[in-house]
Structure formats: C-alpha cells, structure tokens
Amino acid sequence: MPWFKRQPVTLDASGEKNVRTEGLWVKCEQCRQIIWKKDLDENMSVCPKCGKHFRIDARTRLAQLLDDNQYETFDTNLSSTDPLSFVDLKAYRNRLQAAQRDTQLKDAIINAYGKLDGRPVIISAMEYAFIGGSMGAVVGEVITRAIERAHDARTPLIIVSASGGARMMEGVISLMQLAKISAALARLDGAKVPYISVLTDPTTGGVTASFAMLGDLNIAEPGALIGFAGPRVIEQTIRQKLPPGFQRAEFLLEHGFLDAVVPRKELKAYISRALAFMIP
Amino acid sequence: MKKRSRDNPRKNLTEAGEPGVGIRPHAEMLTQIDTSSDQREALSGKNSAKMESGSKTQQELDKIEQQITHLQSLGGQTTEAQREMAELGARVKELRRDVSAHLNAWERTELARHPQRPYTLDYIDRIFTDWSEIHGDRSFGDDPAIVCGMARFHGEEVLVVGNQKARDTKQKVYRNFGYANPEGYRKAMRVMQIAEKFKRPIFTFVDTPGAYPGLGAEERGQAEAIAYNLREMARLRVPIITTITGEGGSGGALAIAIANRVLMMENAIYSVISPEGCASIMWRDATKKDLAAQAMKITSKDLSEMKIVDEIIAEPAGGAHNDHAEAAALVDGVLQRELAELKKMSAEQLVDSRYQKFRTMAQFYQE
What is the ipTM of this complex? Predict the structure, then answer.
C-alpha cells in the first residue's frame, strides 16, 4: 500500500486559453526570430531581421508583381484525368482532390494577364502548395498556353517557378511536358518575345531542366534552392555531405547559371527595368 | 504471394529438368507455367531482388530446351517419345514468346538493364560504317558517357549520338555507368548543330539511367545543359530519329530525344524517375520497385498506347541480349524505313511536325 495518495487536481485554465495567439506570430526558420505575422506580410513575407524569403503562394506573387493587384486569369479550368490511375500509399485522385480543396486551384499553376508598371505582361505563376508545385499534364499545358499567348500577342512572358519538378504520379507524361514547353519556348525565342524566368524557393528537377533555365534572363530570389537533382539524391550518390550553401541561388550565381539574385522587394523593379531594355 | 515451397513453378522446373527424368513430368510441369498474373507474381515478386538480370523464366526455358535436345540426341526412344519431345520443343518456343509478351514492368526493367544488352557502340558497329567519333564540348571536357560521331548509314552521311554504358568495371567507371554530365549534353548539342549546318540526318540512341546527380554536375549546370538541348533540338532543321534501346532515364534521356520519330525497343523502358527512386519517394521503401515500375507505366507497350513513342522495335526471342546481330538488324530495318519517310520532308516541315508532335503529346487533362 502506498503511503499517500495523489489527489487529482483539475486545473482551471479557461481564462488564459481564451486569448487567441495561433497564427499571429511566425518563427523565422533561419534566424529563429519571432515575427508578428502582420509585420511579415507587410514586408512581402521576408524576415525583417535576417532577410529570409518565406515561400509565398501564387496569388500573393501575382499581387506583388502586377499593378494594383489587377489581373485576369485564364486557362483556369484544366484538371488532371489521372491518366495512369496512379496509386501509391494514397490514390493520386485523392491527393488531387485534397490539393484542389486546400488551394482552391485546379492544379499547381495560375496564368494571369496584367500590367507591370503599366506594361502588359503574361505571368505564369506556380503554386508550391499544390502537390509540391509538381508538373504534370495540366501544368505543362497551362504553361504552354501562356507561352503561345505571349507569342501570338507579342506580350512579354514571365514564369515564376516554385516546384519540386515533374509529377511522378503522371509518369512519363510529366516528362513529356518538359519537351512540350521547351519546344514552345523555342518558338517564343524565335519570335523575339521577351521571356523572364523567376526562380523561387524551391525550383528543382524537371522544371529547372526545362523552362526555368531558358529565360532571356534567369533571375532568382535570395536563398532559393535551385538544382537538378535533390540534395539528398546527390548525397547518396557521392556519399559525402554537401557544402553549405550548395544549390542556393547565390551558389548558382557564382557558377554563372543565374543572371541576377534579386530580393523580393526589388523584383518588380528589376523586371520592369529588363522589359524596358527588351521592348522598343 | 504464393508459398514458394509448394507452388513455385520454377522449383518444379529445376527438378524436372534434371537429365534422365522421364518425359511425362515435363509435360505436366510445362502446363504449370502459364502466365496468369498471380503466377507471374510468384515468379517475379519477392524474388525479384535476387534476380540479377533478365527473366529467370527465360533462363529456365533455355535449360529445358537444352535438355530436350540432349534427350533427343540420346536416341533409342520410341517414336512416341520422339514425337512428344518435338511437341515439347514447340511448346517451349511458344511459351517463350508468351512469356516475353507478358513480362511485367519490373521484368522488362531488368531486361532493359541486362549487362549483355547491346549498347550504342554495338549498334553503331553493326548498323553504320565509317564511324569517326567527335569528342568534347569545347568548354569543359569530354564526357565518355555520351558518344557522338560521323558515320555512314547505307552509304549516306549521318550523325550518331548516343548514351554509352559498359560491361567491365574499368569501362563502367570510364563511362560513368551511362550517367552523363553536363559536358556530355553540351557535346551532343554541339555536334547536332554541326549536322544541321551540313544538312545531315541525326540518329540518337538512348540508354541511360539518367543525368548524373553529382556535385560537379550541379556546379556545371546539369539542368541548364538539359534545358538548352530540349529547346535547341526542337528547332533543328534536319531529320532526327531517336531509338530508346535500354533505359530511358528521365531528363537525361529526353535531352537527346526530341526527335521526329521516337522508336522504342520492345524491352526498353522510358520513365520520369527510376522505379527504385519512385518507390523510395512514394512508398518510402525502395524495395517496392516492382510496384512502382508497374504503376508508372514505363514499358514500350504502355508508351505506345499513350502515343509517346511512334513504334516498337521487336527484339530477338527472349531479349536483345540473346542476339546482338539480329537486334541490330531489326533496328536497322526500321531506321531505314523511317529515314526514307523523313527525307521527303522539307526543313520547315521537319521542324513544324516535330513541334506539333510534342505539342499534342500527352494531353491528359479535361476542361
């Protein structure tokens, strides 16, 4: 028999819990600073202390780049037919539905027509929150249509990448999107219509190995992970730790594969400047 | 999965295949090798990890065939027995064709990676003459994982570009196991532009596990090298014919495969990621590679149905590794026919039709 018995204590914490703090504060992954969410939003989702660029969704991106947040979207109704009826641990069909519900998009891409500093542009912005921004038949087709529109209307094209690469659940169909988009870009290039590729965190795999690296200018946000193979795959292949900063935007700049690394706050001005150079 | 001890037909095969065993058991056990799906699972499922290469069933059929020949050579048998053995021989042939037709995606992956499978230089040796290799990308180095060169195809000057694998360890290291680096893709593009300049058709042969995922490759712009090839190949003004001979490993394969005609060997595979890679990401377990191979639809039949490849090139019975000369002859025949057709087209038509081909490919979406 125990000597004493612990009395169950019921804590009354209702008073404290009524203060809602959830979602009001964000911790910066890089400098561990606690940031007031509103401050972060006002700073274009860039950490005010260390300058870390948080990932932003496609709509926020369009709002940041296009004048007065005014734009017209197109090719919004395309959705995947799950051509392989792909099932791994979960059915692809279910993954698609969940992503569509969460992002209110049909797939990982928005095509928009708007004005950037008064100049008409077409922007194709990828949505990382939709299955890792991965590219299947829909993303490939939507981007190709943006390119064709830009070609036909001779309107400058901007593609903002944020993607893990080709979408495995659509197998080789995803791979063929690389070919399709690159071929369309060859035409755009031939017609001398400007194309600016903006690489944001992260841009890897088949997206980097196609349109993201084919801009007249390839520019990236600071700290963005950009590469062909993922860091883990490389580590497994070469069996050693990767150097710090490997595959970050600054690393690519140093090796000559980016034309500029531009902070988010200056991105619109930089593109505007570039378009002025490219358009008579 | 069936219990191996009782149901595995392979075990029966081995026992029954011992010399001196009567003819009846052959007949009984042969009827067991049907190619229904669960049987195939028993053959390929859990044991697939142990399978070094090709299909074990094929090897067993080889053995049986040898033993039938052996038994026939012994002589002194009744006409009845002789007749039955001849029947069995025919049945083995039939089964071999049947097994080939019903190999699952993982079994085909193993055939596509078979160490005795003909590689690009083997095809060049047998299909082309006057091969003169061209090296180097003129900015960093030469990549032995991709071979390029001038050659003659039935007397006509052509350019050949292909991934190159190797068989012995030293050569494998030299060829980097068929994984190309950026300089390989840049070399390929450089020589393809020479072919364009002098209006020579281009043949490419694809057989790579993928573009090399290494530190140096990233530093030297693997992604940029591939992307550049995709765009520039799309607008080359000469006929391009690609043959996927073994592994079509993702972007590393596509970077030399933007062609007017994309042909695929019967047992080749073409995919966005290796079955192992897909399994370790989607199933979080690399041993689920056979499931991944099946799910991704990577065989020539799947790709032909999806109209991603134009034509399947048949292989010698049991796979191209069984007979390099016949495999090359089969490829040769198709290449001749396709080139003759493409030569009728003007440069503009070639570029336009290549564009349309990839533009309308793989449109699996609804509006």
Answer: 0.90
